[in-house]
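RECORD TYPE: inverse folding
INPUT: structure tokens
STRUCTURE:
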């Protein structure tokens, strides 16, 4: 069985789509194009007071549980399981009081990814697996370096499509992910 490590924000849920209107309330001139394409951080261009206003909304109960599922993600996760993948959600933690519990419950409810298959960490490169899928270029590069036996894939999004970091696998959608999963990994 292959261990498939999958990011959550902007892979399983359209995180930026949910947050962008809120960011533009606190910073009306915000544009995704202004972010560094290789080190994505939606909050990096906000002032401390703008971040605090945004975080006040994000830390409310129910915020995380209202995320939608990304298009095609449920079918893809189902197909990955049928291909023999053991799915782990590897997602960055947040200091908000309800974030972790709501995130874990949301993953279980939407994708049947049980709490023992959810890993909350900033150090994703330390998690061992056969396949790794993330939308953040620096996470994919770091994981590939620490896990040369695995296959690291960058999930292409609006905010990382200009990234020039040398990556072996950039995927445009679930069909490409499924195709790569079915190819043997040369150890």
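DESIGNED SEQUENCE:
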């Amino acid at each position: 069985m292959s261990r498939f490590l999958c990011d959550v924000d902007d892979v399983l849920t359209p995180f930026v789509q949910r947050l962008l209107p809120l960011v533009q309330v606190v910073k009306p001139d915000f544009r995704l194009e202004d972010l560094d394409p290789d080190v994505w951080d939606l909050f990096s261009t906000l002032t401390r007071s703008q971040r605090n206003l945004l975080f006040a909304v994000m830390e409310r109960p129910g915020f995380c549980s209202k995320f939608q599922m990304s298009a095609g993600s449920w079918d893809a996760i189902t197909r990955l399981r049928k291909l023999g993948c053991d799915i782990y959600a590897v997602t960055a933690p947040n200091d908000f009081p309800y974030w972790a519990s709501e995130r874990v419950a949301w993953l279980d409810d939407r994708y049947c990814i049980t709490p023992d298959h959810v890993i909350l960490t900033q150090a994703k490169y330390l998690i061992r697996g056969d396949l790794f899928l993330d939308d953040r270029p620096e996470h994919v590069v770091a994981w590939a370096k620490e896990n040369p036996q695995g296959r690291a894939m960058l999930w292409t999004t609006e905010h990382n499509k200009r990234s020039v970091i040398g990556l072996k696998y950039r995927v445009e959608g679930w069909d490409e992910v499924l195709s790569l999963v079915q190819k043997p990994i040369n150890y």
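NOTES: The chain has one domain: 2-15+64-182.
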